[in-house]
């Protein structure tokens, strides 16, 4: 199977490493032509995970997205959610016909508060049966260092999930499969919001004791939201929200020093403005846009989200972080 990769950041680079380690042929789209040419000449991404070197014999580089998609059997989406729609605008609406789409996007489209699967169905008429996700507690930096990690592949057809997972599985990457292709997308959105909140608490000098309570309550809040938001979708069975793609991803994103959402939140807790934190981070913290998207979505859904709402107030309504967290303390248990 030939895989097209859309994206050239740290996560796209880590996933490309897994595929090329397994001798999978890839067509890789770069928006940045000089970065692509550097990679072609020197065998590594000059900007992200630059210490990881690649066997270039299995990689076809291009700055033409239509060319990359046309030559592949499956398309791997690995850009930040805020940039995905703009990237795909150059494609005709039939570009994904007869192709599998594999999303590694850990976010929601901010323009319309849409899941990636819903956006692709609306614009490209992609049936959910050909949409799959790669998600879980897995930082790109640790994949690059070949530290043991787990990823969950989700989709309606479990056999196809297993076939896709086999392309990525290595001695340092274990794979699991899951049918909850809608719930895992929302979980990936929610965990970024809570990680940002954990960072805010850390920036305000709360300790590990409080953070453990905060994250335990966030896990419960997320599970309740997932049950409610997926209630209208038919599920083969109720997912285990304590598994790695849900709880595990929440934990690593809240605690890890690699977590850009936690780093972003820490800066907010220390008094940075949103703009200043964005400039200093230099990368996309998905939790920022996600907090507004979930707030807007929940206006219709009505789930109990006091933690997510508090984070929204800090980021979007200029609510003081210290007093907002102080108010939140009273309702945690």
TrEMBL record:
GO terms for molecular function: glycerol-3-phosphate dehydrogenase (NADP+) activity; NAD binding. Pfam families: NAD_Gly3P_dh_C (PF07479), NAD_Gly3P_dh_N (PF01210). Residues 180-323 form the Glycerol-3-phosphate dehydrogenase NAD-dependent C-terminal domain. It catalyses: sn-glycerol 3-phosphate + NADP(+) = dihydroxyacetone phosphate + NADPH + H(+). Its EC number is 1.1.1.94. InterPro entries: 6-PGluconate_DH-like_C_sf, 6PGD_dom2, G3P_DH_NAD-dep, G3P_DH_NAD-dep_C, G3P_DH_NAD-dep_N, NAD(P)-bd_dom_sf. Keywords: Lipid biosynthesis, Lipid metabolism, NAD, Oxidoreductase, Phospholipid biosynthesis, Phospholipid metabolism. Residues 2-154 form the Glycerol-3-phosphate dehydrogenase NAD-dependent N-terminal domain. SUPFAM superfamilies: 6-phosphogluconate dehydrogenase C-terminal domain-like (SSF48179), NAD(P)-binding Rossmann-fold domains (SSF51735). The keyword Glycosyltransferase does not apply. Substrate binds at residues 106, 260-261. NAD(+) binds at residues 140, 260. The active site is at 191 (proton acceptor). It comes from the Bacteria. Gene3D superfamilies: N-(1-d-carboxylethyl)-l-norvaline Dehydrogenase, domain 2, NAD(P)-binding Rossmann-like Domain. GO terms for biological process: carbohydrate metabolic process; glycerol-3-phosphate catabolic process; phospholipid biosynthetic process. GO terms for cellular component: cytosol. Belongs to the NAD-dependent glycerol-3-phosphate dehydrogenase family. This is Glycerol-3-phosphate dehydrogenase. It comes from Arachidicoccus ginsenosidivorans.
């Amino acid at each position: 199977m030939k895989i097209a990769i859309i994206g050239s950041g740290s996560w796209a680079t880590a996933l490309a490493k897994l595929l090329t380690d397994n001798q999978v042929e890839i067509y890789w789209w770069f928006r940045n032509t000089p970065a692509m040419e550097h990679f072609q000449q020197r065998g590594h991404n000059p900007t992200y995970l630059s210490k990881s070197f690649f066997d270039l014999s299995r990689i076809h580089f291009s700055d033409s997205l239509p060319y990359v998609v046309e030559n592949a059997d499956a398309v791997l989406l690995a850009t930040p959610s805020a940039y995905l729609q703009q990237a795909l605008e150059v494609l005709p609406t039939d570009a994904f016909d007869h192709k599998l789409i594999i999303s590694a996007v850990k976010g929601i489209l901010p323009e319309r508060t849409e899941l990636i699967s819903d956006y692709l169905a609306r614009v490209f008429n992609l049936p959910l049966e050909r949409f799959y996700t790669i998600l879980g507690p897995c930082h790109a930096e640790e994949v690059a260092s070949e530290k043991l990690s787990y990823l969950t592949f989700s989709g309606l057809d479990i056999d196809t999930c297993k076939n896709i997972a086999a392309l990525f599985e290595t001695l340092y990457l274990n794979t699991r499969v899951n049918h909850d292709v809608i719930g895992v997308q929302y979980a990936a959105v929610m965990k970024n919001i809570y990680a940002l909140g954990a960072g805010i608490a850390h920036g305000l000098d709360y300790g590990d004791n409080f953070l453990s309570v905060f994250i335990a309550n966030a896990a419960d809040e997320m599970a309740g939201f997932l049950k409610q938001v997926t209630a209208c979708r038919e599920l083969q069975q109720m997912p285990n929200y304590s598994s790695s793609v849900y709880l595990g991803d929440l934990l690593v994103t809240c605690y890890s020093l690699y977590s850009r959402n936690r780093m972003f939140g820490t800066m907010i807790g220390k008094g940075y403005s949103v703009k200043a934190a964005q400039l200093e981070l230099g990368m996309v913290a998905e939790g920022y846009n996600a907090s507004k998207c979930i707030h807007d979505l929940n206006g219709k859904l009505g789930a109990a989200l006091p933690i997510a709402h508090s984070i929204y107030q800090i980021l979007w309504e200029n609510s003081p972080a210290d007093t907002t967290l102080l108010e939140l303390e009273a309702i945690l248990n």
